[in-house]
Every structure is written in C-alpha cells, then in structure tokens.
Write a structure and sequence with these properties.
Distance between the termini: 20 Å
Structural class: mainly alpha
Helix content: 55-70%
Number of helices: 3
CATH superfamily: Histone, subunit A
CATH class: Mainly Alpha
Radius of gyration: 15 Å
Largest sheet: none
Shape: elongated
Order of helices and strands: HHH
Oligomer: single chain
Strand content: under 5%
CATH topology: Histone, subunit A
Length: 72
C-alpha cells in the first residue's frame, strides 16, 4: 500500500541512519503507513481539544496533549 503524505525515501534514510543496513520496501511501507495513521489520529484528537477550547488554530500544546493523553 503506497503512502499518501509521507515520502518513502526520507523514512528509509532515517532507518539506515539508525543502523538498518538493508531495509525491505515493505518494511518502509509499513512504517510509513503506521506514521500516517498515528499522525491522523493525533491531529484529530488535537483538533477536538482546539475546538473544545473555542479556538480554530491547533497549537503545539494541543499536539503535545494529544500525544500524552490519547496514546496511538
């Protein structure tokens, strides 16, 4: 399954930079898919917090709170 928002190459470089000498395409695809799902969930949770506070702009604090309290 191809990624929609996160590019494959930077993720593969990140994995190699962290010691993975050989990385299978499907391994990178799986990580990219997980990152996208997690980012969508965190964004939706942060948006809920933003709207609850009567604001329109998602802030860094909304994202941090979403990460802390709404585990992916």
């Amino acid at each position: 399954m191809a990624a929609d928002y996160i590019s494959w190459s930077p993720i593969r470089r990140l994995m190699k930079h962290n010691g993975a000498e050989i990385v299978a395409r499907d391994a990178v695809d799986e990580l990219v898919n997980w990152l996208e799902k997690s980012a969508k969930k965190i964004t939706n949770d942060a948006l809920r917090l933003t709207k609850h506070s009567g604001r329109k702009k998602i802030t860094r604090d909304d994202i941090l709170m979403s990460i802390k309290y709404f585990k992916t």
